[in-house]
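Quick one, probably user error.
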């Protein structure tokens, strides 16, 4: 998570891992440039209005350790461990869970209804609901 657009893009993610020795901030404000990538919306929701205002008005640079303390990141590792940890997280959890959900949902009637309605140029007639037909989260 670098300073500038790298950080503001990372703010949009569900999980963020920082490098302990990293430097993070909304540094563009120190050059008279407005923060980008919806950071005015995402940052206050992550760290609270006062901390977000402080970071976005001063352009202060923080460490990976401080990024955890204020709520920008959930983990901090040595820089050499950030990418392997992120890849392990996505491979171990997200890909497997998404595949299980995909297999479940593609076997249901609405998986056929959607494409058929599109081909036939009509509105789909859904029969299922997330409340009743979504599986328990895969193990």
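Nope, works fine. Designed sequence:
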């Amino acid at each position: 998570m670098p300073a500038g657009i790298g950080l503001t893009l990372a703010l949009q993610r569900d999980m963020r891992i920082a490098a302990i020795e990293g430097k993070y901030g909304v540094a563009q404000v120190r050059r008279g440039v407005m923060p980008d990538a919806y950071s005015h919306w995402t940052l206050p929701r992550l760290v609270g209005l006062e901390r977000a205002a402080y970071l976005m008005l001063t352009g202060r640079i923080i460490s990976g350790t401080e990024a955890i303390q204020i709520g920008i990141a959930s983990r901090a590792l040595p820089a050499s461990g950030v990418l392997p940890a992120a890849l392990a997280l996505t491979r171990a959890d997200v890909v497997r869970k998404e595949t299980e959900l995909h297999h479940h949902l593609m076997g249901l009637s609405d998986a056929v209804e959607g494409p058929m309605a599109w081909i036939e140029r009509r509105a789909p007639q859904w029969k299922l609901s997330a409340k009743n037909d979504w599986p328990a989260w895969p193990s």
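The mean pLDDT is 88.
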